[in-house]
Amino acid sequence: MRMRSLIPIAVLLLGLAGAGALAQPAQPAQPAQPAQPGQPAVIVQPAQPGQPGARPAQPGMPVQPGQPGTRPAQPGGAPAGQPTAAAVKDDPRLNPKPPPHLDEIESTGKGTALLFWAFALAAVGGALFVVTRRNLIAAVMGMVGSFIGISAVYMMLYASFLAVIQMLVYAGAIMVLFVFVVMILNRPEDEPVAPTGRVGQGIAVVAMLYLVFRLAMLLVSVKAPERAMGPPEPVQVTLNTNCDPARCEAAGGRCVTAAANQPQVCRISHEWGTVRAVGTDLFGPGVFPFEAISILLLVGVVGAIAIARPLHEDAKPEAEAEGGAGGAA
Amino acid sequence: MNILFDIGYGHFLVLAAVLFLIGVGGVLIRRNALIILMSVELMLNAANMTLLTFSRMWGDISAHTFALIVIAVAAAEAAVGLAIVVAVFRGRRNVDVDRLTTLRH
Fold first, then answer.
1. Model ipTM value
2. How far is B8 from chain A (nearest CA, A)?
3. Which of residues 243-262 of A touch B (CB under 8 A)?
4. Alpha helices in A108-233 (DSSP H)
5. A130 at interface of B, judged by CB pairs closer than 8 A
6. Using an 8 Å Cβ cutoff, are A40 and A69 in contact?
7. Each residue of B4-25: pLDDT tens digit?
8. b/e map of A257-281 (b: 16 or more CB within 10 Å)?
């Protein structure tokens, strides 16, 4: 029993260790494999000419000495001042220097693959804990491990902002809420798995098998676009028409002519998945859902308080309120 | 293509599908309302991961906004659902969904 309750903690530690490894700027994932001659250790996305995927090499990111093969020369990845085929077309301002922690997680390296499997294991193992454990606290801890793994997987998808939000909201807030409710309930489950209703169970098994089958078919037929999973391209944001060059450049953008006979627009490129990129979309096209969410959260807060309030306290304040209203009248 | 070392979009999609199926299984086989709520959270997370994968695949950042909104909705859902669990527990002294057959206390 004691051993079993240690397993979610182990899952949690695994997730934490992996997150720590991922948080460090990239080199720990790569040096595991020495550079083999003739075979680049890291497969970098081939830069298409004119696409902003080819970035200038970052001077802030030192290449580790003694491992020349771990970061092969990126196609088009010449220093910023040296014009290359890919960099000619775009102004360097359109390809701002990426922060060092973003550009380094290559999705095709072996170290990254190892990390992916570790985090996938943490996520799936934690999820299995949730549905199999009888102990509610163990289930909640497995859920936390699962969320940490999912957050790291988000980071591998270059969704850095969403990864942080996942960690804060899920692993932080929601799980604390669950732990509180578990402590309020404080009652073990008698029989965790429903043993009754053979017909219902049969239907559930058939439905799940069908769902698995359909999902597998769907996943087999998914065709990725003809692009490798390298670093994503920056998000191009068009700010306003009638571009004022000074203000636009102060914001880190550039005045470009979007169409002929149109006023110039201010175009800024943000790094994929960062707060700036997500925020620009959130407060641009997504501003209505954003405002609607605030109403939903307000309703949720009021509803949660109204539902969870003890019943025996209901009568007294209302009677007082009625008395007060009657006195005022 | 080496399926172990070349991590592609399919890996993320399969991971999300596995998480979703575990969530479905939890909702179907467990009787504790808390575990069912947690399984629903798991399914929402799997849907989010699919959203982010496709966002990355097609280079469209708006799925990040959508995932953020899904997270907010999940937070509201967890708050209200847990409040309902607490209210039910206060009246009936258990949260076994198989025994909750009436709507009143």
1. 0.93
2. 7
3. none
4. 110-132, 136-156, 160-165, 175-185, 198-220
5. yes
6. yes
7. 777 778 788 889 988 998 998 8
8. eeeeeeebbbbbbbbbbbebbbbbb
